[in-house]
Write a structure and sequence with these properties.
- This is Exosome complex exonuclease RRP46, putative.
- The chain is α+β, with helices and mostly antiparallel strands.
- It has a single domain, classed as Ribosomal Protein S5, domain 2 (2-Layer Sandwich), CATH 3.30.230.70.
- The protein has a five-stranded mixed β-sheet.
- The two termini are 26 Å apart.
- The N terminus is likely disordered.
Length: 258
């Protein structure tokens, strides 16, 4: 299994797992182990210290970060994720409960990545996310765009770098499919879609955002362990894309636990 994880095609993540069907084509032509073609732009928001527009297929988000900046809240008052101020909004439409959930998870993710002890006193980091379009795997797309925006800024101390991968599970033709980077229609037909955050150097799972629980908690734990190598392979495929397209930015990438 380890060799399958280490040797990854640029847009493909394969793991030998006979209990899952990985190689059957999906409606859009991808194999189960393939992510949608990514698109990435950095530094396109001049008013931000760092910014990234990231898309996977028709899912696209824009993230801008500033920091360290002076804490704009009164002394003794902070945001729930202090020293972070994270906002998520849609390009069109009203805010939703999902947006608040994404803000909470994104705050947890960034707190894993930023070395808050190295921030100057009474300063904070602001992260603004605009969801341009959501066609599935939104949380993993936002996580990846956020870390790339932080790398683009270069002014915010980081513990290291981790990327995210969404994995969906569904039953299909008498078997089980594990779908990397599911689109919205695939999410709707899946039992769950979990988001794995992987340290790109240690290949450890540093954060796992689970979908609605299915079955016993112990069963979910075993399943998460079984799916982790697939998430690692997917992250390595995305890392390879980042490396090939943005070598100058890739030099800033370090392990989370360094």
């Amino acid at each position: 299994m380890s060799s399958a994880v280490e040797e990854v095609n640029p847009n493909k993540a394969e793991v030998a797992a006979p209990e899952f069907i990985y190689h059957q084509a999906r409606i859009d032509g991808r194999e189960c182990s393939m992510m949608r073609p990514p698109t990435l732009e950095l530094g396109l928001l001049p008013q931000k210290d760092g910014s990234a527009r990231l898309g996977f297929g028709d899912t696209e988000v824009l993230v801008g970060v500033n920091g360290p900046v002076e804490n704009r809240f009164p002394l003794g008052v902070s945001t729930p994720g202090y020293p972070l101020d994270v906002t998520v909004r849609r390009a069109s439409g009203m805010p939703t409960a999902e947006d608040k959930s994404v803000e909470y998870q994104l705050t947890k993710f960034i707190n894993t990545i930023i070395d808050t002890h190295l921030l100057p006193g009474n300063t904070m980091v602001t992260v603004a996310v605009e969801v341009m379009n959501n066609d599935g795997s939104l949380l993993s797309t936002i996580f990846n765009a956020a870390i790339l925006a932080l790398l683009d800024a270069g002014s915010i101390p980081l513990r290291g770098t981790a990327f995210a991968a969404a994995l969906g599970k569904r039953y299909h033709r008498g078997g089980t499919q594990i779908l990397v980077d599911p689109d919205q229609s695939e999410e709707e037909s899946s039992v769950f879609t979990d988001t794995f955050v992987i340290d790109i150097h240690s290949q450890d799972v540093v954060m796992l955002v689970r979908d609605v629980a299915v079955g016993a908690a112990a069963e979910k734990e075993v399943e998460a362990d079984a799916l982790a190598p697939t998430a690692v392979a997917a992250v390595k495929a995305f890392e390879k894309y980042v490396r090939s397209c943005l070598a100058v930015y890739y030099q800033k990438i370090r392990p989370v636990n360094a």
